[in-house]
Design goal:
Blueprint lengths: L21 E4 L4 E4 L2 E2 H7 L2 H10 L5 H12 L8 H6 L7 H15 L9 H27 L12 H10 L10 H13 L7 H10 L5 H13 L6 H14 L4 H9 L20 H16 L5 H14 L2 H5 L6 H11 L7 H22 L26
Antiparallel strand pairs: 1-2, 2-3
The structure holds s-citryldethia Coenzyme A.
S-citryldethia Coenzyme A binds next to helix 16.
């Protein structure tokens, strides 16, 4: 309403934009990208197809997908000088901080990607970041592990190339199995977009000032880092490992989560929109069981996770508050099985969310959305006379 300011903390009841990209129904647990159900895409498409769908609005033909991938491959080199920035980080740097910094650093090496004033500029900036981001993700991992950086292999598929850059050991033949490739591909699809969540709203808000795409993405990575958002996938595994170290005492952690004096929350539970179940968590739970089975891994953390979920789903405190496992609850179990270190989990979330962020940023610019500038309810001091320092 003009004139009257309505306070809506956390924007729980505020629509920030119109969008035709992703549809959520929190009551029915429905998630669709451009009208296609997440279940059908997770089963039938690969991540690059879904990225194309989110960004351009339609599932690509064979020719369109081939051209998109070819254009992306043509942009998959990262300037050698970016390594000097990477070298400046201590090994202990959190990979999300490395990823956000290197994404922002790319601006200096790709100045043309800042002002996207035509469809052609927009397309060029998109394939640039789709080509370079996986390299930055792999470099963040290699930095974290203290292993030499790998270069991409353009003969491979998009996701397999990412795995090769992340895991190829020096002087060793690179071997990856299809179970791992398919599992990561599915996980990335399930993370690809989620309408106006915290990090996507950040990407839109930063982009609404006409800051460039890479700058907006760098801001989105920082928003995703928080443990209440994408950082939850790392916090879930840390919580499950703590429970395991405590002899599997889930009751103690359930009590902590319900204790208002204790800031501890059951990580991987609850969602602002989903009030019955998170359709992604359902798919990831099944995928986790399949991947561990296919890879012959017996991870006690999965059993603890399932036990905790069962307990919470029958606990009045959680049921009354409609708290269910969300996308972050089981995803870390798969990342562990793929050999990805815990502090890299949120980087993997960012890798999956990249096409969603791009699609939302592109839509915001194409619809010429105004600069985001909310108002406030002022609760500070009224007008008062200045006091010189002698009188304070
Ligand atoms: C993601 O928005 C998106 O779409 C995000 C995401 C995406 O794809 O982009 O889906 C990805 O971020 C998933 C969420 C990952 N975060 C976590 O798992 C962290 C733990 N979850 C919570 O912090 C919380 O549930 C949120 C942040 C997810 C949602 O917070 P809300 O909607 O602001 O709800 P709230 O904090 O107001 O909680 C409502 C009540 C409160 O109790 P009361 O004050 O009413 O008594 O539920 C309680 C909360 O204390 N509560 C929890 C809880 N989550 C909410 N209590 C214990 N454990 C929890 N996890």
């Amino acid at each position: 309403e003009t004139g009257v300011i309505t306070l809506d903390r956390g924007f729980k009841n505020t629509g920030s934009c119109s969008s035709s990209i992703t549809f959520l129904d929190g009551e029915k647990g429905i998630l669709r990208y451009r009208g296609y159900s997440i279940e059908s895409l997770a089963e039938g498409a690969d991540f690059l197809e879904v990225a194309y769908l989110l960004i351009f609005g339609e599932l690509p033909s064979k020719e369109q997908l081939h051209k998109f991938h070819t254009d992306i491959k043509g942009e998959s080199h990262v300037d050698e000088d970016v390594k000097k920035i990477l070298d400046g980080f201590p090994k202990s740097a959190h990979p999300m901080g490395v990823l956000s910094s290197l994404t922002s650093a790319l601006i200096a090496f790709n100045p043309s990607s800042v002002n996207v004033n035509s469809e052609e500029d927009m397309y060029k900036a998109i394939v640039k970041i789709m080509g370079k981001f996986p390299v930055l993700v792999s470099w963040a991992l290699r930095k974290n592990q203290g292993t030499p950086l790998n270069y991409g292999d353009n003969s491979l598929g998009y996701v397999e190339n990412i795995l090769k850059m992340m895991f190829k050991k020096p002087n060793e033949e690179y071997v990856q199995n299809q179970v791992v490739i398919d599992a990561l591909d599915k996980l990335l699809i399930l993370h690809a977009d989620h309408e106006q969540n915290c990090s996507t709203s950040t990407v839109r808000l930063v982009g609404s000032s006409h800051a460039g795409l890479f700058a907006s993405l760098s801001a989105g990575i920082c928003a995703l880092w928080g443990p209440l958002h994408g950082g939850a996938n790392q916090a879930v595994i840390e919580m499950l490992e703590a429970i395991k170290a405590d002899g599997g005492d889930t009751k103690k952690y359930m009590a902590k989560a319900k204790d208002k004096e204790d800031p501890f929350r059951l990580m991987g539970f609850g969602h602002r929109v989903y009030k019955n179940f998170d359709p992604r968590a359902k798919i990831i739970k099944v995928a986790a069981e399949e991947v561990l089975n296919d890879l012959g891994i017996d991870d006690p953390i999965l059993d603890i996770a399932k036990g905790l979920a069962e307990e919470a789903l029958s606990d009045p405190y959680f049921v009354d508050r409609k708290l269910y496992p969300n996308v972050d609850f089981y995803s870390g179990i798969i990342y562990r099985a793929l050999g990805i270190p815990t502090e890299m989990f949120t980087v993997m979330f960012a890798l999956g969310r990249l096409p969603g962020w791009i699609a939302q940023w592109k839509e915001m610019r194409e619809l010429k959305e105004p600069i985001g500038r909310p108002r406030q309810i002022y609760t500070g001091e009224n007008d008062r006379p200045f006091k010189t320092i002698e009188n304070r």
